[in-house]
Amino acid sequence: MKTSAFLFFTMLMGINFSFTLAQSQKSRLQPGKMYHQGDTLYSPVFGFTTLVPEGWIGNLPRESEVFLLMNTSNTSGEIFVFGRESINLESLSKTWISGVDITDNVRLTATNPIIEGDLLISNEVIAEGNYIHKEYKAFAATRCGDKGKCITVLAIADEGHLDFVTKTSIELLKKGIFEEPSNASPYDNFNWKKFLSNKLLITYDEIRGGAKRTQINLCEDGTFKANVRKQGILKQTNPQYKGNMSGTWTAEGIGPQALLSLNFSRKNLTSLSVKLSFQDEQLYADGERFYASESTSCQ
């Protein structure tokens, strides 16, 4: 059974929780934003609040809607954070042993999970998925609140740093606060232009092992650069839409839907309009799953 991905969209954690939640303004996490140490991380969907600790930053990996934490020092290690519906920890332990797809791209298998108070912990974990280093060791833990939601952390690191990253993960769960979840739409007054500016939109070919398909860099100055394969959002349109392309872009829309317009520099190409939408807080372009991350090609 697949869990629902932790819809932090950009998030979480480290080891120094000397600050308190009251010191930071609490607001819903915004798609595409980088969060730094001391920032408050709040997911209304799961009713969970915590802070980015000292020495960590968080953002959304290109291939997943799961929040990824990275250490800003030379310490190797990453922390993935997921959310799911509440479940009895003993039942969850059995699920971990048999193996569970916690997202479309990450699978977790635990060999000896144990229950410690309100935590399910496993120090022996096999983690598989995109961007998970095969040579790293893994640790997993889950904590369930009393409001029907649970939070899972999956920590990976080389053997020399796993204890540090493990301690960070446990502190994240213990210091976090559960409250009543809310299904309020995150897209009220959603600013698509701001969200898409300086973003890389990308889709992957799952059949070919996650190979990149269409990539579109949307720059804040209104220009774009794209690398278009035959697959992707342009596959049903003019076959001349392929290879490296550039031009200008605009986005118009209110709420969870918008229209992205691409105007190409090549004179023989007509403009293209693409319907963007969020479904269960996942980004789609003309019905195809896309991922958004910070662009490194925009100046």
Q: How confident overall, as mean pLDDT?
A: 78
Q: Strand sequence of the main sheet, in spatial order?
A: 14-15-16-17-18-19-20-21
Helix-strand topology string: EEEEEHEEEEEEEHEHEEEEEEEE
Spans with pLDDT under 50 lasting ≥5 residues? Answer: 1-25
The largest sheet, given as strand count, sense and whether it forms a barrel, is: 8 strands, antiparallel, barrel
Range of strand content = 35-45%
Q: What would you report as the Rg, rounded to the nearest angstrom?
A: 20 Å
> Portion of residues in helices?
under 10%
Q: How many beta-strand segments? A: 21
Any idea what the shape is?
A: elongated
Q: What class do helices, strands and sheet pairing give? A: mainly beta
Q: Give the termini distance in whole angstroms.
A: 43 Å
Please give the count of helices: 3
Chart the SSEs and their pairings.
Layout: E1 40-43, E2 48-51, E3 56-59, E4 67-71, E5 78-85, H1 89-98, E6 100-101, E7 106-110, E8 114-116, E9 119-122, E10 125-129, E11 137-144, E12 149-157, H2 162-175, E13 177-178, H3 192-196, E14 199-205, E15 211-218, E16 223-228, E17 243-252, E18 257-264, E19 272-279, E20 282-285, E21 288-294
Antiparallel strand pairs: 1-2, 2-13, 3-4, 4-5, 5-12, 6-7, 7-10, 8-9, 9-11, 11-12, 14-15, 14-21, 15-16, 16-17, 17-18, 18-19, 19-20, 20-21
Can you characterise this structure?
It is a single chain. With 299 residues, this protein is mainly beta. It has three helices and 21 strands. The protein is 10% helix and 40% strand. The protein is elongated, with a radius of gyration of 20 Å.
